[in-house]
Structures are given as structure tokens and as C-alpha cells.
Design goal:
Radius of gyration: 16 Å
Distance between the termini: 49 Å
Number of helices: 4
Order of helices and strands: HHHH
Shape: elongated
Amino acid sequence: MKKPAGSLFFEIILINSVILQVLVSTISNYSTVSFILKALSFIIVFVLIIIDIKANSINSKELFASRINKKFYFTLAGLIFLPALSLLYSANPYFGF
């Protein structure tokens, strides 16, 4: 089944957003701007993934049906949530624990 052109554009945006979030996660939390940038990149990627799942009408059983899908989604979750954990840690007491 051929996907519409908008779907391809959305997938490109999603992939680039994940790459951007991984790159942004390397920034230290020493300024408010970097902290906000990290939080926004996490929120954008998370929302885009939710939109993609809803738009494709994927339920949780289909999401983890095959072993390849499980590996892909666990890798994707790692690329999204592990950098987001850097929001919680900083040597600067104003921007982390």
C-alpha cells in the first residue's frame, strides 16, 4: 500500500526530531535556555510519536507483535528517554538534583 506524501514528510520530521533530541541531550544544564531546549526537544519527539501511533491506528498488540518491532521500539525508547533523564541531573543545583 502506497503511503501519502504527507506521511513521508511526517516520518522525515520524526526521524530528524529524534536525531535533534539526541544531539541536544549532550548540552549541559548550566543555563535556563539549554534546559528549556532539552525539555522542548523531548516533548516534541514524544508528541510526534504519539501522533504517529494514533494516525496509523496501531494498538499495543500490533506494536509489539514481532521481535523486530520490539527491538526497534525499545531502541527508540532508549534514544528518547535516556537523554531526557539528563534533565534531572546537573552539577548545578539550580538545574537538576
